[in-house]
Amino acid sequence: MSFFSFPTDFLWGSATSSYQVEGNNQNNDWFLAEAENKIKFSCGIACDSYRRFREDFDIAKSLNHNSHRLSLEWSRIQPEEGHFDPDEINHYRKVLESLKERGIQSIVTLHHFTNPIWFAQKGGWSNKESPLYFDNYVKKVISELGGLSRIWVTINEPLVYVYNSFYQGIWPPGVSSLRQSLKVLDNLKRAHKKAYKSIHSGLSDNVKVGIAKHLRFFSACSYFNLGQNNIPAFLRRKYFNYKILDELHKEKTMDFIGVNYYTGDFLKFDFRDLFGKNCLKAHHKQRKNFLGWYVSPEKMFNLLMDIKKYNLPVLITENGTVETEDKMYADYLRQHLFYLDKAIKSGVKVLGYMWWSLLDNFEWDKGFSPKFGLVSVDENQNRKVKPFAYLYKKICTENKIEV
Ligand code: BGC
Fold first, then answer.
1. What is the dihedral of CA 51, 55, 56, 57, to 10 degrees?
2. Cβ-based neighbour number of residue 227 at 10 Å
3. What pTM was computed for the model?
4. How far does residue 2's CA lie from ligand 1's centre (Å)?
5. Mean model confidence pLDDT for the chain
6. Ligand 1 pocket, 49 CB below 6 A?
7. pLDDT 10s digits, 40-86
8. Is it the case that residue 3 has pLDDT exceeding 90?
9. Is the CB of residue 163 below 6 angstroms from any atom belonging to ligand 1?
10. 118, exposed or middle or buried, with CB in 10 Å at 0-12, 13-18, 19+?
């Protein structure tokens, strides 16, 4: 048995996003897509965290989390173009203050997949003015709430958003076009850069700004491979993982890299799609979780070693799983922290680790059945801490793991 200690001041906590937990968000493009039956599930009241946030933060506190990642819902703060709602700003002030009162450091995301309806109707992120609209919202948030957080994530998973919403077309606005995807990605990057500058000019230097980048480990499926499977693996590594980081790093618009890590994929060449298809055949020996995602903790280490070259602090902004048994959540957590510790020992400066998610919540196009939470939420929104959350509590309390 060995013990691995984490750096002092390490941030331990969990993450959520507004649409997935708040409930009753009726003013954004996801709500609209659900109402038009373009999505199979409806989010409805979700976990009712809009009203129960204090209870949620009490739970996080009782589990000895010293930090919490959450997102602000743009469509509440700016329900119409040119109009900011003072009551909603006040609501988020109370939310961030309640974290502070509990001694929990907030990590605030400004955009987590959902957009106000007025913005979507103007073409959303495919409109070349979109970075300006976003920047107006960011400036307002910073002037009103900026003092309440030291860590800001501008945009959550820009590439996942582009891929699902504009390439595969399975999320709103349901577009499938490479040309549109590239345009949207460009607008998201411009939006991030503007937001980076606005946050820094509105606040002191003591603030850190970054994006939350979904990193996936892409390998070529080695079965029936005549070399061609390397093409999608290479393209995804380059365009899905690193190109945006190269660019933002070069332009010095990241103070840290937020990493959302879940899994690694094996890719097969597909002549209809440059980016290939996932190989889900049984010939890959790795265990799959309840969602069919390969559990590959060692690949998180490989990815962290790849991004060491940027010489920036890293914050694990999401890591988590969906399993059928509590013990498997505990194993997943322990294994990933083992490799996180290994990355730290290999020179990666890691600021902290956020489990996805605090609560079982609305998992986008998959509805409520995937359970990522440390805490379950029943039909009446009653919360119950799961056993593996106590293992995490021990780790957060002692700042070390035992493996
Ligand atoms: C997203 C979350 C999502 C999680 C699990 C991440 O890609 O940021 O919103 O719930 O993965 O799929």
1. 110
2. 8
3. 0.98
4. 32
5. 97
6. no
7. 999 999 999 999 999 999 999 999 999 999 999 999 999 999 999 99
8. no
9. no
10. middle
